[in-house]
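Pinned message: reference record for histidine kinase
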Amino acid sequence: MSPEPGTDTDPAVDPGADPDTRRARRRAGTPRLHPFGLRTRLVLAFLLVAAVGCGTTAALTYRAARNAILEQTQNTAVSAFRDQVDPLVISLPVNADSLRDTVLSIARQGKPRPWRVYAEYGTVRVSSTDRPTSSVVTPELRARAQARSATPHGSFQRVVKNGTPYLTMAVPAVFRTHVSQGTAQPTGLVFYAVMELDEEEANIEAMVTAARDGALPALAVALIPALIASRGVLRPVRELRRAAHSMGRGRLDTRIHAKGSDELADLARTFNESAAELERSVTELRNAEARARRFASDVSHELRTPLAGMLAVTEVLDEDAAGLDSDTARAVRLISAETGKLAVLVEDLMEISRFDARAAELHTDEVDAADCVRKTLQHRHWTDPEQVVPYLGEGIRARLDPRRFDVVVANLVGNALRHGAAPVTVRLYAEGDELVTEVADRGPGIHPDVLPHVFDRFYKADQARTRSAGSGLGLAITLENVRLHGGTVHAANHPTGGAVFTVRMPL
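Predicted structure (tokens):
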């Protein structure tokens, strides 16, 4: 019987549930911790987008600013260097002393910062420093500057040497053959200038540092809208989880407050519609189930009085059956047998109705378990060792309801005798803090397709068989009695043949 809406059943104290079911319920009732849950993923995604945006903006800004700084510096330097070299009047052949004076004069005019100037003419090497040549000037720059072309022009190159950036420039000295036409001819003299770019690199590094220092606060600021956004997304999700958990505990009137017009609001409305439909369906099923239980209980109760009279009459008829003719005697015995089966069925229906109505009570007492089993076998006259063989552990004290434990053992042994083959063995022993009762037969066993249904009410392995020796409720009543004790019952097939029913109850 399912709990009514609004009730709260604690699975930890539900004696009718097996341990696996109780563990599953406890897991369902306990919120699981997700280190990388939806909130974390949303925040990380938001921060990742912010980081990518900051990084991309910083990279593009850095690239543009770096190019602007370096181009401005190199354009200023190259233009100034060319303006210093182009007006020079060179007397050939070149005199080293006068050339040195020229180089020193050019070096003093360097901008935006001082230059180190070098001049090369054939084998003549002159510089504004104490070294005639510079290792910073690359062969590639020399080759471009000394290339024979109709219109000699200057070249420049950025070079990094020993971690220091430099701007190197080369301008060939020329003379003009026709002043009016401005035709320039190379003289073979090339001037080189070297200028450090350490200040520009320092400015660029400062810019990078500023961008990095600004990105961290930006990410911290981005965390606030990320948390707000994730909260807005997760609030309806949490409400949906709580509502689903509440419905799982039987509160089918649970609803979610749906507001807005986004997908989450649509999900909340869909949940409410489904919950309302489910509540209507479950209510109808519960009402139908209650009516069916009440009908079975009422019918069983009403049948007890006429059945008592019928049983009394059949007992008298059984006694006089020997004096009747054979056909009448057969009919009398048939009526007597069927009346007895009907009485058993009525009693079983009333018992199962009490379980359904949660009206079954457990009256426990500390008893000798082996003695209880022996009394059960003796009362049913199952004392023939060719039919039932008991292996009972002596001295096992257990807290049981003797009447219900008697029903459990009797139903299992009776089922084994009816559907299995003799001898039926009954084993009783203690295992840890549990009392274990095993009933095994030597029959063909239980078909694997039937095993999951052996404890179902009125289940028939052979659908063509309409009648059986029992009521069809014996194993179902056994299961309910075992659950009432807080134990479990399990059906299986023995490897050597036959069915084995194992009952485990707390001592």
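Pinned by admin. Summary line: The chain has ten helices and twelve strands.
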